[in-house]
Structures are given as C-alpha cells and as structure tokens.
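Example protein as discussed:

>
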Amino acid sequence: MRRALKILAILVIIGLAASWWLTRPGRIDPADLAGLSGDAARGEMVFWVGGCASCHAAPKAEGDARLVLSGGLAFESPFGTFFAPNISPDPTHGIGGWSVEDLANAMQHGTGPDGAHYYPAFPYTSYARADLSDIADLHAFLATLPASDSPSQAHDVGFPFNIRRSLGGWKLLFARTDWVRDVSGEELERGRYLVESLGHCGECHTPRNALGGLDYSRWLQGAPTPDGKGKVPALTPDKLDWSALDIASYLATGFTPEYDVAGGEMADVVQNLAHLPESDLQAITAYLMALPTP
C-alpha cells in the first residue's frame, strides 16, 4: 500500500510539472528580430489595419484623440468584462518601456513582459500570423504617438477565469499560427494576410465555442456579438453577395450599395481601413470573394 501511494504521489508530481511546463507563456526567439529596424511610416499602415485605435483609444474619442491610446474601452463577454489597457508611449502607465521583443511576444504569443498570459480579448490568436518586420514597424510608429498617464483598469473576471496560468491550456487548445484558408497568388495572399492576421476579421465574424475558441469550421460565417445582444454578419459569398467594387467601396467609405452606412464597431473599422492603399482594399475584397460557400 505504501509503495502504491508513493508511486501515485510521483505520478501526480510528474503530471503537475508537465502541466506547468505545457502551459508556460510562449516567447519568440530574440534572434528572429536580429537585423530588424522599425520604420514608423510603414508602421502607421500596420497600426490602421490592426485596428489599434478602435480598442485602445479612450471611449468615444474622435479625430486626433484616437491617437491617444489611453485605453479604457470595456468589452463584455460571458467570461467577464475586459478593459483595453493603456498602450501609449507613457513609460509608467503605457508601453513606453517596451522593446520590439516585448511587443512581438504580446502580439504573437499573448505574453506580457512580466511573463503573464494575456486574455484573448486581445486578438493575439490572429496577430500570431503577423510578420516580425510589421511588428517592428508598428513599435516604431507607436513610439511617435502622444503619451497618456491614465492607468490601465483591471479586468473584471471571476474564478476560474482569473487564474492566468489556465490561459496556457486555452492557448494549447485554440491558438494556431497556420493560415485558415489555402490561397495562391500575390493578391489573394496579401488579402489573406490582412484578413486573417493584422485585420483579425475572424475575431468578430467567426463563431466561438463554449470556451471562447474560434470555430474555424465556420470561418467568417457570422457570430453573436460578445455581449450576446446582436449579430455580427457573415462575410461568405452566399451572405455577402456584393460585387468586388461594392465591397472595396464599403471598406473605404462605409457606404453600402443600398446607400446605407456602416454602424457600430464596423464604423470604426472603416475609419481605420480608409487609411489603406486601394490595392490592399482590393486584396481584402479578393480574399473574401474567394471564400468557399458553406
């Protein structure tokens, strides 16, 4: 009996150690950043397509105030309420002290400089596909923005979701870095990059399972809003049956073919996408029109 208990204790210790190791926060290899030099002008395009202002500007900020990334916007979800943090260049309350490596760890692995897991309200499951050169450019651009000394708000998340280490298990189950759709050709590949990675369209337009993981089998087929009070439309060709010109025009102006206008969070997205070159809007359009019909 004593021998059996000893073996059981050893197995439990091994299991706990394996679980701790498997759920450890991921990090990039610093060597992968060697030779990269961020360009703020290119980083501005990454900033806009990544939608940074939509989440990290103060609620209801307009115009140039959208460039003050003081955070504070609340995101209600079945798991609690998450608050966008201050990511302005303020060294104390923002990310002014972050290196490119810190930003890359956050975007590609959902890992903070202190080694803590980030909640997937921050769409690192999409940003994980971002090129490191784009992340370096974005880091350079963020450093040019106004600093804000507004402290970030703590998330309002109850047990067991407040156990950060459990997010390592969530990442094992649901985080992926491969492309969702196979495409070929320069324009489609560019569109895929913008939609699946930087633009993180799937985060809102794809249904999630009970644990908040994206249901890739229903990619961009529409989903309930995180607060459960509305519906995010599908982007598949059977639902979005506009012409290529209609889609590209909507992304640039927010006007639909019926002369309606984008509302809600999509209005913010259009404000961001309006900064992109026409070729990128056409690439996004080409990718959406090439999606398979469910």
